[in-house]
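Homework-ish question, so no full write-ups if that breaks the rules, but can someone show me the predicted structure for this set?
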Amino acid sequence: MSLLLVACLLTCLGQVAQKCAVESWRGASKGLAFKLRTPWIWLALSAMGAGLILWLLVLQRLEVSIAYPMLSLNFVLITLIARFVFDERIDRRHWLGVVLVIAGVTLLGLHA
Amino acid sequence: MKPRHGLFFALASVLLVSVAQLGMRWSMTRLPSPEGWMTAAIAPNAVAVVLAAIFAYALSMLCWLAALRDLPLGRAYSLLSISYALVYLLAATLPVFNEGFSLTKSLGVMLVILGVITINSRPAHAPETQE
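A: Not a homework solution, just the prediction itself:
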């Protein structure tokens, strides 16, 4: 289970970096060489690589029908990062979604 | 802006990531745990499948990046939640996975999907934030 959490954290980091990469590419149509020079893409790739290896080890132990939906904990993590690191305002609907995801993951966890 | 391209890439990403997850599960249950990587016998077909699955996963990432250029993040993530249902249904129905349906699991997957869609839907009056 802790393996799954670390895999989630790495995936989360990878996704934030990916988004930063795409944003830094916007407006610049300078081809692949330029794109590969953004450091974000390298951070994204290494976080995803490490996350992938851990994920494979998770799948060795947990059924994929349980483990894969649990990756949605990412949305919970991203929400908490947005709220407490970037000080973004999170509306009530968003928190309701977070509660639903946590409830779903808890049910799946009972099964694991 | 070509939202239809975005939709195509998002759906391709959903399919690829689902196939990748199933492939990884199938192969990892047939490979030894890390302690045995040096000593145990390693099935070559499982290695082939895990590599193919990783390739599909990487391809799904590329489709995802392509989708994010045209689709708002919220819409794209709502589409991604389809893959939770797809993986669950396939893993539960295909006999090679032998994972089976259960009420708690179905309810859990449904709550997760509902949660992801709730998080990523915006109220009608608020404009979608353009990333």
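Now go work out the reasoning yourself. Hint: The CA atoms of residues 9 and 65 of chain B lie 9 Å apart.
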